[in-house]
């Protein structure tokens, strides 16, 4: 019984908070300074952070400032201030891990934090959702934060033409469904020339945030993405007379 008693006393969420608390405290300590910036000065922080990232400073080193900037931008644009638990969720996602958010903890807002940070590299970020409606909703709603801070926001929808897709994928942050992203990847692999590609040629997959990750990587993953079409060559070459 002692074993089970000790087992249930261990709180994984408490251990997680303890691990990330120093950075949360640092973000909170920056808040009074960031609050004093004008809108234009806040936007200029994006330019500064992007220059530092492209000069070789690691994204981990920029995380505290980037999250503090996003928090203030979210307050001004959406009227929502990311809480400590949302900052922790953003850090976990930045590390490429899965963050389980409880109902009401604002997972949509959480995704904005690492998306902004990783977009500073200039290599693009994908925010992957399960359907066109959610992709459009998120790009129009929380995408306002990115646009306020000077980032370009793209949206992929199922009825878009190749040129529209190419422009959307070239943005700093692109909202897209898992199926559309998968099919665009397949079509790019079948392309006859570089001019037909819609994904970024140099770095098509830099960083992504996946919403409903259990559904997309487990449930949806069992459904194959198939592109079919007529053969360009006669099939009789494969048969012997």
TrEMBL record:
Keywords noted in UniProt: Protein transport, Translocation, Transport
InterPro entries: Helicase_ATP-bd (IPR014001), P-loop_NTPase (IPR027417), SecA (IPR000185), SecA_DEAD (IPR011115), SecA_motor_DEAD (IPR014018)
Annotated Helicase ATP-binding domain residues: 88-241
Ranges for domain SecA family profile: 2-241
Superkingdom of source: Eukaryota
GO cellular component assignments: membrane
Entry EC no(s): 7.4.2.4
UniProt protein name: chloroplast protein-transporting ATPase
Pfam families recorded: SecA_DEAD
PANTHER family found in the cross-reference section: CHLOROPLAST PROTEIN-TRANSPORTING ATPASE, SECA INNER MEMBRANE COMPONENT OF SEC PROTEIN SECRETION SYSTEM
Keyword Hydrolase: no
SUPFAM superfamilies, sorted: P-loop containing nucleoside triphosphate hydrolases
PROSITE patterns in alphabetical order: HELICASE_ATP_BIND_1, SECA_MOTOR_DEAD
Gene Ontology process terms (BP): intracellular protein transport; protein import; protein targeting
A molecular function GO annotation: ATP binding
Major enzyme class: translocase
Reaction it catalyzes: ATP + H2O + chloroplast-proteinSide 1 = ADP + phosphate + chloroplast-proteinSide 2
